[in-house]
Automatic annotation (TrEMBL):
Family the entry assigns: Belongs to the PRRC1 family.
Name of the featured protein: Non-canonical purine NTP phosphatase/PRRC1 domain-containing protein
Biased composition (Basic and acidic residues): 12-30
Organism for this UniProt entry: Elysia chlorotica
Main location: Golgi
Any Pfam family hit: NTPase_I-T
An example molecular function term from Gene Ontology annotations: protein kinase A regulatory subunit binding
Subcellular location: Golgi apparatus
Disordered, as annotated region: 1-99
UniProt keyword list: Golgi apparatus
Claim: Transport is one of the keywords in the record: no
Polar residues composition-biased segments: 31-40
InterPro entries referenced in this protein's UniProt entry, alphabetically: ITPase-like_fam, NTPase/PRRC1, PRRC1
Keyword Membrane assigned: no
């Protein structure tokens, strides 16, 4: 019985129905008032005020990377305030070049700083003794490798410079030690050998005869016209001398003449002991009427040793008898000669 009572519809009274109909009419009238009709004219908005002069010029000019982009945000305004607000005062005209100069930073100063820093770095490298030693060591190592693989490259690498001289011989055991010595002392030097003979004996005897033979080689070379009159010349002349009684030694005289600077320097190589029997044999083979007997013997010690011991040879007897070759002893003497010559040269010429 209770379930059937709940399913029955609710009964509305006549007063409530009238009140609901009245409220519906009021809502409909309100909606008609708010909705615009076709005859009502639309609301006209006032035109926006013109932009300032400097903003219009900025917008019309092309964009540049240096100018930063700035977004202008304008606060929302009502239509009444836009129409009633007066125009803003005209801003001062600023040219495009002035704006670019003001916006773009000056790049000259950083560039100068970078160039200055680069120059300071290179200056430090050039003035650093450790770097110079490493460069020189690398250079000498490369030159050593090249000259070891091809000994003929030594003359090409170290030739040149301000030192140019001639040697009064074309034999390698005389030209090579002089060239190596001067290139070591001066760094670069051009050394050329020329054939020249002395008018002294075949085997000079004594210091005076050795120096005389070196001078005659230079004089004969200049008279032949093979070299210029002002070219520096180095002459090498071997001789034997009895330093102690019955103690004979072979030595070489090295003479340098530089006419352009008025320099003359001479030195002697280290002595090489000669057995007395070889000297006696050379004296026996020299005739009594030998025209150059005043300066020495008619037969050289090398020829005597080669005849007595054919396995030694004419050019290697100093190495066999003393353990030092003639080329090595001449190089030591040439180093001393080049050093003395460098000390006598003007400072401006050497530098």
């Amino acid at each position: 019985m209770m379930e059937e009572a709940e399913d029955q519809p609710e009964i509305v009274s006549h007063e409530e129905a009238l009140q609901a109909e009245k409220e519906a009419h009021e809502r409909m009238s309100l909606s008609r008032e708010t909705t615009p009709t076709k005859d009502q004219p639309p609301t006209v908005l006032a035109a926006p005020s013109p932009l300032p002069a400097f903003l219009s010029n900025t917008i019309s000019t092309p964009k540049t990377p240096a100018l930063p982009k700035q977004a202008s945000v304008r606060p929302p305004q009502s239509n009444v305030s836009i129409a009633a607000s007066p125009a803003p005062p005209a801003a001062p005209q600023i040219s495009h070049e002035d704006r670019v100069k003001a916006a773009v930073p000056d790049q000259s100063e950083p560039a100068g700083n970078s160039i200055g820093s680069a120059q300071s770095i290179f200056g430090w490298l050039a003035g650093n003794s450790l770097v110079n030693k490493v460069v020189e060591k690398t250079k000498s190592s490369m030159e050593s490798v090249i000259t070891t693989l091809d000994p003929g490259m030594r003359e090409i690498i170290n030739s040149g410079g301000d030192i140019n001289l001639a040697v009064t011989s074309t034999k390698d055991n005389k030209v090579l030690p002089v060239r190596e010595a001067f290139q070591k002392v001066f760094g670069r030097a051009t050394v050329t050998g020329y054939a020249s003979q002395a008018t002294t004996a075949a085997q000079p005897v004594g210091f005076t005869a050795g120096l005389k033979g070196a001078e005659e080689r230079i004089s004969n070379l200049r008279k032949a016209g093979d070299i210029s009159s002002d070219l520096t010349v180095v002459s090498v002349e071997g001789f034997i001398v009895e330093i102690l009684p019955d103690r004979w030694f072979e030595m070489s005289c090295l003479l340098l003449k530089d006419p352009s600077h008025g320099i003359e320097v001479q030195t002697f190589s280290q002595p090489t002991f000669i057995p007395t029997e070889y000297v006696l044999t050379a004296q026996d083979k020299t005739p009594l009427d030998y025209p150059l007997r005043w300066s020495g013997l008619a037969v050289t010690i090398g020829e005597v040793i080669e005849t007595a011991k054919p396995h030694i040879g004419h050019a290697d007897w100093q190495m066999v008898l003393s353990g030092v070759s003639r080329q090595q002893s001449l190089k030591l003497a040439a180093l001393s000669l080049a050093s003395m010559y460098k000390q006598k040269l003007p400072t401006s010429f050497v530098s």
